[in-house]
Amino acid sequence: MKKPARRDGTPDRNNKKQRPTRSETGGRTRSETGGRPDRAEAAHRSGRPDATKGKPGRPDPAAKNKRGKPKSAKPQRAQAQAPKISNAKPARHQYADADRPAGPPQGDGMRLQKVLAQAGVASRRAAEELISQGRVEVDGRIVIEQGLRIDPENAVVRVDGVRVVVQKDLVHLALNKPRGWQSTMSDDLGRPCVGDIVSERVAAGQRLFHVGRLDADTEGLLLLTNDGDLAHRLMHPSFEVSKTYLATVSGALERGVGKKLKEGVELDDGPAKVDTFTLLDINEGKSLVRVTLHEGRKHIVRRLFDAVGHPVIRLVRTDIGAVALGDQRPGTLRVLGRGEVGGLYGAVGL
């Protein structure tokens, strides 16, 4: 049963439904109006933590460990940040140093020391020493800087003045042509020819040229290559590539024969002479001589000795420029060495 309000009009405090509102008290709290202070104000007065953050009057259990010491914060694992990706292209010369001297060109091509190593000149380290000593020449210019890149197919490289051939597909061979073999790649009459000796190489795709000719009765050194320019120059008389022969001639040669051959002999197609003449032996009515000449006309050695009255019995070509036959057996092939190849190119200005 509801208790009636007091006669003075004030509400009954025991009646919960008629408690004064904030608007009736002028916006003051209960503590201001003489009632109980709220929890926030009581916590502020007593110095205890707010009840809204924990139990009033008790310390936070996470703040201390069992021994009463402050608990250290647990180490947090570092989180790797995702890399930032930029699609922007840097400037081509963004970090260029204007005072830095320009080095050797670093464009397309192969490093010079690698080219020399592949050509069999020396190892890469030894090739670098050759370059630093100024012994390497590229296209007529001495190179001393390391790392120069060149085009192996077109660059002219020399070491100590000797041409270095660096093209991998070039072939240079020396053949000891036997007596009675034809200086042709094929023969319609079925006679043995040079092509029979190099048939396997030709079948494998190599296109070979024989440099000049030796008649069937002449034996000795014959060069073969797939460098047409080199073959043409070696055969052209304007380059005057020397050739050396051993000739066994009939009769004992008199002293004046050598002088006459060096001064020149008139032939049916013009005068001809030898560059050097050496008498090696006279035995049983035969003479062995060595002659060197740069003439390339057909049967020139035989015609010269016929003109002085001593026909040739046997003729062997032993040298062409820097290439020597040595003790190579008849009918065999060998690959020319680097010095020999360089000497041939140097002799014809390549």
TrEMBL record:
Q: Where is the composition biased (Basic residues)?
A: 64-74
Q: Catalyses which reaction?
A: a uridine in RNA = a pseudouridine in RNA
Segments of this protein annotated with the region Disordered: 1-110
Bias class Basic and acidic residues marks the residues at 1-63
Where is this chain compositionally biased, Low complexity type? 75-84
Database matches in Pfam families = PseudoU_synth_2, S4
Domain of life, per UniProt, equals Bacteria
Positions of the RNA-binding S4 domain: 110-171
TM annotation in the entry: none
Extract the InterPro entries matched here: PsdUridine_s_RsuA/RluB/E/F_cat, PsdUridine_synth_cat_dom_sf, PsdUridine_synth_RsuA/RluA, PsdUridine_synth_RsuA/RluB/E/F, PsdUridine_synth_RsuA/RluB_CS, RsuA_PseudoU_synthase, S4_RNA-bd, S4_RNA-bd_sf
- What PANTHER family does the annotation carry? PSEUDOURIDINE SYNTHASE FAMILY PROTEIN-RELATED, RNA-BINDING S4 DOMAIN-CONTAINING PROTEIN
Task: Give the family from UniProt.
Answer: Belongs to the pseudouridine synthase RsuA family.
Please give the name of this protein.
Answer: Pseudouridine synthase
> Organism, per UniProt?
Rhodococcus opacus (strain B4)
